Each structure stands twice: as C-alpha cells, then as structure tokens.
Amino acid sequence: MINPYLQALFNCKQGDKVVTGLKTYRAVIISICLVLSFLMHVQAQDNDVWHVNFVDEDLSNALTKLSLLSETNIIFSPDQIGDRTVTLSFTGSTAEILLRLLSETGMGFKDRNGQFVLYVPRRKEARYFIRGYVEDDETGERLTSAHVLETGSGIGTSTNEFGYFSLKVPGKTAHLRVSYLGFITDTTEVSIAGDVINIRMQKSLTLKEVVIYSDKKDRYHVVSLDGEKIRPDGIESAAGLGGEFDLHQYTVQLPGVTTGTDGIGGINIRGGNNDQNLVLMDGVPIYNPTHAIGVLSVFNPYIINDAQLSTGSFPARYAGRLSSVMDVHTKEGSYRKWGFTGGIGTLSANALIEGPIVKDKVTLLIAGRIFVPQSFLRKLSVNDKEKNGVKGFTNYTFNDVNVKLNAVLSSRDRIYLSYYRGKDTYKDVTEQKTFTDEVRLFETFDKSLEWGNSVGILRWNHELGARTFSNLTLTTSQFSLQSLDVIDFKATVLTDPRYTIEGFVHREFKSRIEDLAIKWDVDHMIGARTKLRFGISMTRHYFKPKSIAFDDQAEIEGFVVDEGTIDDALFAGLFVKAGEYGLYIEDDMQITSKLRANGGLRISAFSNGSKTYFNPEPRLKLTYSVSDKLSVEVAASRMVQYIHLLTSSGIGLPTDLWVPSSEKVKPQTAGQISTGAVWSPESHLSLGWQIYYKRMHHLTQYKEGASFLLKEGAVEAGIIDAADWENKVVQGEGVAYGSEWQAKVHYSKWDASVNYTLSKSERKFDKLNFGNPFPFKFDRRHNVSATGSYHFNQIITATANWTYGSGSPITLAESKFLYPGSGAFLPLAILEIGERNGYRLPAYHRLDLGISATWHRPKAQHTLNFSLYNAYGRRNLLYVTLTRDSEAQVFENRQFSVLPFIPSLSYQIRL
Predict the structure, then answer these.
(1) Which end of the chain is flanked by fewer CB atoms within 10 Å, N or C?
(2) Using CA atoms, how far apart are residues 297 and 288, in angstroms rounded to an integer?
C-alpha cells in the first residue's frame, strides 16, 4: 500500500501549491516511492529471520531445507539446479537467504502469492563463436560426428566429416562436454581467444557397450531415424563369411537392405537396383563397391573411420543415385606415433601401417589386402576337373591398396592426398574330349573376367572464419571391366578322316567409365540454432564401351579374321563424353527445442552432346522430439540419376556396362516419402519403425534377348554384336513400398538387435512381359535379421547372426527343345521362356556363429576369432537352369547352391 501522505503528490495538478520544481522531479520521486513500497511489502510478508549453515550442500537439498524451515513453498525444477553445491552460514529472511544461495547460479526468483518460484532468466543471444576440432588423443585422428555441448546454455552441435565444429556461446569462456562412442566423455573449460581449439579425447578401456541416454540440457539434440552411423566396433560385431569383419556383412543386417543368395549380387535398398546406391569413399563415388561377386566390400575394414547409411532421407549435398547413400570416411593416419595392424583369415590377409612423417604435421597411411585361397585354389581345381574327366583349372583372386598422405599447413589449413586401387580376376579353362563311334571332338573353353576400381583425391580444408569451414576437392574415379569368352574346337568325322572341322568363337566385352570432378563445399554457422551448407560440383564423365563377337568365318575388307587380329585400337575412338553439374543449399535448423528441420534444394544438370537436362531436387526432413524418449520423423525427397547400369546377368555377376542419359534415354528419377518413430522407454532399449513409399521413373533395361551393344560403323556388322545400344534398351516405371521395424537392446553383458522388413517392389515396362507388371528381381516380401552377442568378460565374446528372406523372383524356361536347323553341324537349343520373374526360389535362411577373444599385452592387442558360416548347413539356392539329361534324353530344371557349412579362423594383431 502506498503511503497516504504521498498520495496527494501522485495526484497533484498544475497550479497546486507544492514544492518548487516538483514537476521536474516527479518521475524520480514516484520511482523511489514504488521501490520503498515494494520493500515494505516484502518486509511485511517476511518479518521472520532464519539461520542456515550449509557446507558443500547440494543446492536442491539446501532449498528443500529452507522451505521446511520457513514453512514457505519454494518451487524449482531439479533440471535447473543440476549438480551445484553451496556453502553458506547466514541469518536473514527467506528472501535474503535465497538471494545468497542463488547469487552465483544466474538464477532468480519471484513471489507468487506467498510462494517463491525459481527461474532462469532468458539469456541474450550468444555473441561469441568458438570453433575447433575433436580428435583422438592417442593418434590425432579427427573424430566425425562427435557431440559437443556447452553445458551452461545447453547449446550443442556435432563435428562434421573432418572433425570440425563451430558453436555460438554466451560468453568469452565456455564449458564444453564432448562425447563420442568408445571414448571417455569429458568436460573442459575453454576461452574465446580467436584461435582454433583442439579437443583431445581418450579411448575408453572398459567393456564395449552401447549407451542410450538423454540430456535435458541439450535443447537441440533430437534422435534421427535415418542415417545409420556405422563405426569399426560395430562392423567387428558382424563377422561373416571367412570370419571377415566387413562393411558389406554388417550392412545386409540393417532394415530395408536385401541382397542375393549368400550376398551375391550386391546390395539392394527399398526396391532399388544395386547401381542406384551412391557409395562414397571420402566423398568420391565407387562404381562397383564389392569384391568376390558381392560377398565382400571394397573397403578394407582396417581403414574405415566411420560410415553412414541413409535410405529414407537424403541431404541436398548428396546426388546422382535413387535409393541410398553410403558415405564412408577413411582414417587419416596417426599424427603422433607409428602403428601396425595386421590380420589373416580364411578369405583375406590384411595389413595397415600408419604414423607421422613429421609429428603433429604430416602423416602417412598404407593399407593392403589380398585373397588368401589364391595360393591353393588353382591346384584344387585342377584335381577336381581331373576327377570329372577334363583338364584345366579355375582361379580367382582380388587385392586392394590404400595410400593416404595428410599435412597440416596451419591451424586453419590441411591438405589430404589419397589413392585407392582394387582389382578382381577370375579365370576358368577347361579342355575336354568327346568320342563317339562317328565323331571325335576336342574343345577348349577359356573364360576370364577382370574388374576393378581406382580413386584419387586431392583435398584442401580451410577455415574461412570463426563460422565458416571450406572444403575444396579434386577427384578422379575409374571403373573398368573386361570379360573374355573363347571357344576353340576341332571335330573329326571318323568315317571320313578327311572331313575335319575346326575353328573358334571369340566373345569379348569391355566397359570403362572415367570421372574427373571438382567440388567445393562450405559449412556456415549462422547462429546457435542454424547451420547452413552449400556447394557446387562439376564432373566430366568418359564412357568407353566395347562389345565384340566374331568367329573364324568373320571377315574385314575381304580378309579372314584370326584370333588377336582385332584389338582395342579399333575401338579407341568409341567413347562418349558427358558433363554432370550440381548446385545445392542445405539448412539444418533447430526451429524449437523439440523440432528440427533439414531442408534443401539441389539443382542438377547433365549434358551429353546436344542434349541437356535440368532437374530440381528438393529435400526435406522434419524430426520432432515428443519427449526425451520418443521422436517422430517425416521425410520427402526427389532424386535424379543420369547414368544407367546395363547388365544381362540374372544373378548379378559383375558384367556392368555404364551408359549415360541421352536424347533417347531419359534420366532416372525417384520420389520418396517416409515417416516413422523411435522410442527408448528405457536406457537399454530402443524401438524404431518406418514406412515408406517410392515411385521410380525411366528405369532402364535391355529389351528381350538384347545384350551389350555398340554403335554401328566401327567395323563390319558381322563383327560387332549389334548396333546402337540406345535402340536396344527400354525404359519403364517402378514402385516400392514397405514397413521397417527395429529393436535394439543392451542389458548387462547382452547386446542384441532384431530387424524386420515387410515390403513389395514391382516393375512395369511397356515392351517387357507383354506390358504387365512383374516383381523386381530382389523383391522379398519378408526379410528378417537377428543379431546377438554376449560378453563373458573383457576378453571373450560370443556372437550369433540369423537371416531370413522370402524367396527371390526368378524367370524360368518352361520348355526346351532341339532344332536341327538348316545345314548346322550341331542342333540349336530353343527355349520357351515363362512369365518374367513368375517363379520364386525357396525361402533363404542362414545362421552364423562366432566366438572371439581379445587380450592386451604391454605393446600389442591380439584378437582370435572362430566362426561357423551357415552353421546348420542350409543349401540355399542361387539359381535354377534348364538342362538336358544325356541318358534320359529329357530336359529338367537343375538347382545350384554355392556356400555350404564353412568354418573359419582369423587372427589380428595391433601394435
């Protein structure tokens, strides 16, 4: 209540007899009176005084004791208090004690009807930027996607693919808490001095575990459904064929991912073909990402730093494929000490050496891998062929090498130079004799297949300022494949030895694509809640196809062609140049404390001769954190693919012909929408669910009976196996939709996950299958993968992986008969083909078991792994073909399977 003697003063009018100058000081006096009135009101409310004595008392406990002592409600949230402690010995009123207790917390309180309500004053917008790198303390390796949190403000961010972060903070000092799986979470105090900060993290030496937690202070951290983060320790938990720790073996266990029998045929995601997966090695596309016909990936597991698989939402920075993005980052190499990792198993032998050329400045990494069975496979095949009455051999091998050189030029500049080369070679030679009463036939079949990738990268990282990170990259990527099939024969009619027929048939296929690209990407931190990315890219494609078939009767300008006459020189001018361009902008924004958005737009273009295509590619993902335990997500994207993969193989053998979009062949496009939720009811349990719908346009496939072709005019039509490939392909539509479920649990010494996918994928081409829709060749209605591991102790771990999939569609010949032909020496085999993909193979399922032991010595870590592939010996069918029984003289379907029960042993050492 206002003092009555001042009431007239407040109500005085001009002309009243008051103190001279009152008009001038009226406002000041009113303010003083209001303050005095407030203090009198507080004193009237809280006349009692109390004595408190707190020594290192939790602030929340101190507030509770004060509330009980004064019999006054003090309302606060434990999240506001945190783990603060206080020491205070003081006598005063409740309000005075509260002022003392909260003096160093930045908190205030308000009187609400006789109750004190604590609050955190709204902070002004952050004025300072702090930036730096998060790295492994032992090696200096930069850590991708490490989480950085400023504990005072609750503002957080993640490091980019080069371990860089930029964060807007309220003051010139900040307390940063940095967390990364497998490393000790630590809090450090840093000052804003304009310099780049290096935060070093130490590896955790405790038992491997998966920890799911929520930090309420981190207002801008929400869980995303898409973008499965894969790290080396996760890959090592999924040992597959040959006891290999392989990225491919891990990926096929994820929801939405399918593959052919025993992994053959590559990876197919959400109804897409394997060429529709964008696989990146340090940002550069890999055209054939597998060894051993799809069983192993081209990524040596020793060099993987981390990888991320995106299947439902695609940030605008990614382009060129329709179905998924597998972004793999390789290690930089140790900046502080030399190290060695080596291992040998049933399938491969690996080695990696890394270390500083100049400590903390220049590092070198070299890794290599070879196929182990090549040393004895050829000899085994010779014995096997002899048992079947023929001569010859079979051999297969692969190898790859990675070299990486990195240099720190300054605190703001780094240069990366890296090279990869991988190669697979298969050869099968068979010599057989066929003797009858009338004919003596000698035949030699020589089949060889060779394919490989190579990648070169020159990269410059530069920090443009406190808020801006630049990455300029010059790259080259090549893929080549060569297939050769030669048949030599000599037939002698015994009734007339003078009548002898001899000759050859030569079929050769070669495919090569070379890319030269430059791109510039920029990360810019606008504010505490907004991160902007933009960039530009240009790629020059060179397509070099070759397909040739000729025999001893073929002629060129009147001369009979002999083997070896035609060589690559005739095809030197047969290549196509095309350009692909992209410009994108991407915004990652925390709209509210619960809602996050990643939206962007990419404008892409493709030029091939006189034809140029332009396409907008909008992308949007919204993630809403309903609570600390539940997040939901909605995503929509449009993708464009300007290059096409043509293959005539029914089981996905690597006979890949890459061709560009042209005036006749339009680019492939796809639009996808998806939504889902992830729920973590407990810290050890996570449940996820997604549904998706994807429609694809201008999918490309060979016409019925067509194969690898070239343009007319290079050589005689009888030599080249066709004319213009553009007239031998058809384009159609596709649709894929489904639901994916995932459950992960970590409890005590147990880790387990179960993934289930219910899906459908169809194709429709006007000129295939009479225009009727047919199942995609990797359409599987049900797909299940279950993995589990048990840690007996810090040394021994047992694992089990079980996979189930509905039978894959297959096209079968419904009948076959021999037609003598007109003057042919041997009769022709005529097939009557049934409905395209009208049959299905039996369901596929397999159990893999493994046990590993890891023990440490002062200077080395040893790992020994024993595994059983296909533990219960399931004979899963790879394909079915129609063959003729020579004795019964009838045709029958013959089934083929590849991999039976296989035990494996592998050993690894780290120095």
Answers:
(1) N
(2) 9
Backbone angles phi and psi of 659, in degrees to 5: -135, 155
**22 sits in which H/E element:** helix 22-45
Residue 433 has a CB neighbour count (10 Å cut-off) of 11
Cα–chain-centroid distance for residue 73? 53
- Dihedral sign for Cα 609, 613, 614, 619, please: negative
HSE toward the beta carbon, residue 45, CA cutoff 13 A: 18
**CA 612, 613, 619 angle in degrees (round to 5)?**
155
- Rounded to whole angstroms, how far apart are CA atoms 344 and 365? 19
pLDDT tens for 556-598 read: 444 444 444 455 445 555 678 999 999 999 999 988 888 999 9
Residue 883: pLDDT band (50, 70, 90) is low
Could you tell me the pLDDT band of residue 828, with boundaries at 50, 70 and 90? low
Please choose, from the candidates 616, 577, 625, the residue with its C-alpha nearest in 3D space to the C-alpha of residue 597.
625
Copy the structure tokens of residue 574: 């047969």
CA distance to 59, 63, 64, 86, 153, per residue, from 77 (Å) = 11, 11, 12, 17, 16
DSSP annotation string for 734-769: EEEEEEEEEEEEEETTEEEEEEEEEEEEEEE-TTSG
pTM exceeds 0.85? no
The edge-to-edge listing of strands for the beta sheet with 324-330 is 228-230, 304-310, 324-330, 277-281, 284-285
| pLDDT(716) > 90 | no
DSSP 382-402: HHHHHHTT-EEEEEEEEEEEE
Instruction: Tell me the β-bridge partners of 213.
Output: none
User: What class has domain 290-910?
Assistant: mainly beta
Residue 460 · residue 414 · CB < 8 Å: yes
Q: What is the pLDDT of residue 674?
A: 94
User: CA dihedral in degrees (281, 283, 286, 289; nearest 10)?
Assistant: 40
Report the half-sphere exposure of 306 (CA within 13 A, side-chain side).
Answer: 20
What is the spatial distance between Cα 419 and Cα 264, in angstroms, rounded to a whole number? Answer: 27
What is the radius of gyration, based on Cα positions, of the chain? 35
Residue 652 binned pLDDT confidence (cut-offs 50, 70, 90)? very low
Q: Where are the domains of the chain?
A: 4-119, 290-910
Q: Which of 112-121, 326-335, 629-638 has the lowest mean pLDDT?
A: 112-121
Distance CA 468, CA 897 (A): 55
**Dmax over Cα atoms in the chain, in whole Å?**
150
Q: What is residue 642's predicted lDDT score, i.e. its pLDDT? A: 96
